[in-house]
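STRUCTURE REQUEST FORM
Protein name: Vacuolar protein sorting-associated protein 62
Source organism: Cucurbitaria berberidis CBS 394.84
Requested output: structure tokens
Priority: standard
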Amino acid sequence: MVLKSLFYVAAFVASVVRSAPVKLQERQAPSGVPDYVLRYAPIVYLHSDDQYLPTDIQTFLDNTTPRVNFNEVSGPSKPLTSSNVNQMGGDVWLTSNDDVTKDPQWIKGTKPDSNGRTNEAVTAAVIVNDKGNGNVDAFYMYFYAYNYGGDVIGWKKLNFGNHVGDWEHTMVRFTNGVPQALWYSQHANGQAFQYSTVEKSGDRPLAYSAKGSHANYAMGGTHDHTIPNFNLPGGVLQDYTNKGVMWDPLLSAYYYKFNAGANSFEAYDDSTPTNWLYFNGRWGDQEYPKSDKRQVKLFGQAKFSGGPTGPADKQLNREKICPENGKTCILRSILVPRSSGTDDVAFEGDEVII
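Status: completed
Returned output:
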């Protein structure tokens, strides 16, 4: 009986070890990346039922065609690559070669393995902005081939905000190597929290990626986003997060330094492509017109909206922990589901960043 009990204990321990994030020394980050950027990097939990997972950047390029006003334009190669896509203009949309309503396999991305790695798929980028005097912002960029906007409660088979291509991010702000605060991107805005406030695995903060939309939250549960930047715990258009599939973006990422003065990027590793960061167009399809049978527009909302801009457009040299978007920046000291918007309420102990 004792031996049998020991066997079950050993099996349980082994399963925990297998599912735990990979240790710092086992990660494949290039030399030169600050240790604290890795030590305090967020771990992302994908929703257990999400069909649209992190996507390899080159795989996305392999399955898209540059178009302007829905017309194909020539490029330096077909398909484009992460080394030459920057040669395309800012009016270019990287448009799916497939009808995305048919769910082609490539838009579903790559499911992380038991260690959180997206094998044979580079699905993230880490961008380090050293501002001097010990002040560093580390951006953890996450890429998905498709954003499913979510179903409208009470309206069968009706949903809004779908789009090809999806760049999301978290940012950790450091002072002398010590994490101070985090930003979680959510749709048109997001939330900021003190590092001491958020849930962690060891030293690493957790980010919960919403099912389909991939908005990042500091906690699991249901989050309404019907009214931008108000984000109550329930409503007609909701994000759902849970501790489903563990993803460690560090294990399959490109690593860069950002020079704000020169507005330039430098890879930590000579073999890492950099040019794709200078692409100023859109990662995804242009919003479909009303004449497209796939499109539905209602109450000013489109079922299929346009694809996003890339990491360079995420205010990498922001002054506040929040991006400058006209919204009040609240650095929260408690976990709450509501996002930091103009109508939001600061709780006692929260800091309003002016």
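Reviewer notes: The two ends are 64 Å apart (CA to CA). Residues 30-353 form one domain.
Form closed.
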